[in-house]
Amino acid sequence: MPQLYPGRRYTRAKAPLGIPRGYYPTEPGHLSVTAKPKDGEAIKQGMAITLDNNGEWVKAPAAARTSLTKSVYVARQDQDDPAVQASGKLTGLDCSGTFEFQTGYIVAATFALDTELTIEDGTGNFKVAAANDKVVGRVSALGTGAGGLIAYPGLVPPTATAADAARVQFKTVPAYIKA
């Protein structure tokens, strides 16, 4: 679980999820689903998740990368967040909605504007889409970090490295299979 240290910022293994556009919690018009996370799944905010056959959140599996019938969501909270533990529910924001996300859960690559993103099987990470992958987003902003990543200044040593503090920013798109 993330820890608080006196006189220091909130620390975690990866940069927290950023939502520059599209998330208005007091307006019900955005696409989201609230469900129970599967026990032991270790879901973190910013990870790619889907609902399994039992209606529980899991890190997005291979079937979600290649099928247009399986929706992909972005986790809004950590599974071990006290509010999630108390309610038993975690919110997922639908990648087919009109969101823009910043997440650190990525497979290292060099990103350019409009780079198509898909999910990595079972890890919760996003990665560059290859042929026959379902595209769930496109890179919408570049930073000055390695590979065009955006630095997140809120992480503090010793729990974080420069790679842990890097995020990719992408806008969601209606899912399609990359040719």
Short account of what is shown:
The protein is mainly beta and 179 residues long. It has two helices and twelve strands.
List the helices and strands and how they pair.
Layout: E1 18-21, E2 32-35, E3 48-51, E4 57-59, H1 62-66, E5 73-75, H2 82-87, E6 90-94, E7 100-103, E8 116-119, E9 126-128, E10 134-141, E11 150-151, E12 166-177
Antiparallel strand pairs: 1-7, 2-6, 3-4, 3-5, 5-6, 7-12, 8-9, 8-10, 10-12, 11-12
Which key phrases capture this entry?
about 180 residues; mainly beta; Virus Head Decoration Protein, Chain: A; 5-stranded antiparallel beta sheet; disordered N terminus
Please characterize this protein's 3D structure.
There is one protein chain. By secondary structure, the chain is mostly beta strands. The protein has one domain: Virus Head Decoration Protein, Chain: A, CATH 2.40.300. It has helices at 62-66, 82-87; strands spanning 18-21, 32-35, 48-51, 57-59, 73-75, 90-94, 100-103, 116-119, 126-128, 134-141, 150-151, 166-177. The longest helix has 6 residues, at 82-87. Residues 1-10 have low confidence and may be disordered.
What is the overall pLDDT average? 85
Could you say what the CATH architecture is? Beta Barrel
Percent helix, as a range, is under 10%
Please count the beta strands (DSSP E, at least 2 residues each). Answer: 12
Text of the CATH class:
Mainly Beta
CATH topology descriptor: Virus Head Decoration Protein, Chain: A
Characterize the main sheet. 7 strands, antiparallel
Shape: globular
Q: How many domain units?
A: 1
Treating each run of at least 4 consecutive H or I residues as one helix, how many helices? 2
Helix/strand order, N-terminal first = EEEEHEHEEEEEEE
User: What is the CA-atom radius of gyration, in angstroms?
Assistant: 16 Å
